[in-house]
Structure formats: structure tokens, C-alpha cells
Amino acid sequence: MDIFETIHTRRSIRRYLDKPVPRELIEKILDAARWAPSAHNRQPWRFAVIERVETKHALAAAMGEKLRADLERDGAARELIEQDTMRSYQRITSAPVVIIACMTTRDMDVYHDTRRKKAEFVMTIQSVAMAIQNLLLAAHALGLGACWMCAPLFVADTVREVLKLDADWEPQALLTLGYAAEARTKERVALDLRVKFLDADERG
Ligand SMILES: Cc1cc2nc3c(=O)[nH]c(=O)nc-3n(C[C@H](O)[C@H](O)[C@H](O)COP(=O)(O)O)c2cc1C
Known about the structure:
The chain is α+β, with helices and mostly antiparallel strands. 48% of the residues lie in helices and 13% in strands. The chain has a single domain, classed as NADH Oxidase. Helix 2 runs antiparallel to helix 5. The relative contact order is 0.22.
């Protein structure tokens, strides 16, 4: 696959075959992630890889409890609460590999004013997102499926606690990974609805 085909045909995959992913493929995918660009080349990404069923269950159960509490506070219907928590639990536990993508500000520049502090923080997040995109594309190029799930952002402390992550690892995303058991299609809005060539008039 050339890079454009890889980019165009990658889809978020949420159902996986019950087939393990060889460790060397996982490492190859993570290696692609670490070659992403990052602010000051500080590489503020950290990845926690989970393959053991027990760890996935512990994580999914703890995250599910928090999700349930949030939905109860929202006053959601009992049926919807059960549906959402069950779906989240199943998604996490049925994926052969779960990767928690984290960011750390440990090596980033330190500022004392809010404006620059915020810019540096955003750059840290942007850098991790770049690494995740590399990871998703590399997985696809190797014949695997993956999906980015945002849930850890809502329950970062729980994820850190259950997985005993270092205090400075801030969970940003949960990535499921495995051999696809579904084919997905997805559309994008037309390019001209998202892009403005600012000098178009001058060029005629
Ligand atoms: C920041 C971010 C958060 C996402 N969170 C979720 C999620 O929690 N659950 C999910 O099923 N997909 C999630 N996705 C995947 C998107 O739904 C998906 O990328 C989008 O619908 C486009 O589909 P495609 O990736 O198949 O092209 C997320 C993607 C991004 C970039």
C-alpha cells in the first residue's frame, strides 16, 4: 500500500477476531508512533500496552463504574446506562490488544504565564495525537484494525490507578487493536468545505 492508499482506506475498527497480535507487530506499530513529529522533539507520548485478559477486565470494570456514575448523575434512563456501560466493557475486553496513549509534560518547556503555559500544553497534546495517528496508520498498513476511544480522558485518575501508571502519565486515549472482524465505510465532507485557498482570486 502506498501512503495515500493507507490514509484513504484506514477505518476505525471496533470488532476484532479472537486472534492474538504477534508482539513484533505491536512493537513495529509503536515504533511508527515514536517517529511522529513532536514539539521540540521532546516526544511527550507514553504508551501502556495491555494484552492480559485480567488487566483488560479490571480496567473495563473500573472505567464502567465511572461511566455509570456519570450517566446516573446526568439522570439518564436505566436502560441507556446499562447499554452504554456494557458496550464500553465489551469493546475494551474483546480487543486483543489495548493501548493507553498518555502524555507527559515532564520534558516540556516551563512557563510562568498562562498564555505560554497553555500553548505548551496544547503542543504536548498535539504531539501525542500525531503519534496516535502514526500508530493507527501503521496498524492498518500491517493488516490490523484499530480504534481510538476517548473514554480515558473522562476517567484519567481511574485509568492511572488501575494500571499503576506513573503519576505524570496523563491518559489521553484508549486504542483497541487486533485483526478486523468487520469492514467499515465512512465519508468525509468535500475538501472545498474545509479549505480556503486565500490567494485564489489573485491567481484567477
Ligand atoms: C479524538 C478522537 C476520539 C474518538 N473517540 C472515539 C470513541 O470514544 N469511540 C469510538 O467508537 N470512536 C472514537 N473515535 C473514532 C471516530 O469516531 C472516527 O475516527 C470517525 O468517526 C471517522 O471514522 P474513521 O476513523 O473510520 O474514518 C475517536 C476519534 C478521535 C480522533
